[in-house]
Amino acid sequence: MKLPFETDRLLIRNWRSGDEASFHRLNSEEQIMTYFPFRRTREQSDTVMQAWRELCDKDGFAFTAVEERETGKLAGMCGMAKNKQQEMAATARLEIGWRFLPEFWGKGYATEAARSWLEFAFTTLGEKAINAFAVPQNTASTAVMKRIGMTEIADAAFDHPSVGDDYPELRRHVLYRITARQWRDYRRSAT
Q: Residue 164: which residues within 8 A CB-CB, separation 6 or more?
């Protein structure tokens, strides 16, 4: 299994020319960025998108584009990155995450895309576990984590090192994880 992934409704693919405006929206609109302490300029967004495109080409994974197959429109992004926090990297090499444009919220696209990425992580990459994290107030994101079989790790909440003192309400994050075994069990029970 390798990119692009196709699901019933989505095409999960690397970034390409023409995605820049939608990617910038994903990184700058207040409604989307409620739980993030930064807003990227168009130039910053273009730089990040190019870096992720190159990382995906090199490693076979990154945070990538999610396109609605029926319309061909960019709906959001989903993917994986190497855990940067040392404590989390000790328990899982990769983290999974997603972000979608508001007009695509409530359709189950984040869940659908994240399930594809978990399958890739456990079957192709042979990962033992995958982490995800969010501020506790981001109940839409933690609901996706639960729907894809992840469980909150008790007593593992942490203050995100990249969130400064200007945003105390965004510092604390909850940690979710799924192991390869839990994923296999979850998939069996879902069928």
A: 37
Peptide bond into 37 cis (omega under 30): no
pTM: 0.93
Tell me what pLDDT residue 138 has. Answer: 97
Q: Rounded CA gap, 166 and 97, in Å? A: 24
- Give the pLDDT confidence of 110-148 residue by residue, as tens digits: 999 999 999 999 999 999 999 999 999 999 999 999 999
Q: Which CA distances in Å does 84 have to 93, 94, 95, 159, 168?
A: 9, 9, 9, 14, 21
Neighbours of 57 (CB within 10 A): 12
Pairing of strands 74-82, 63-68: antiparallel
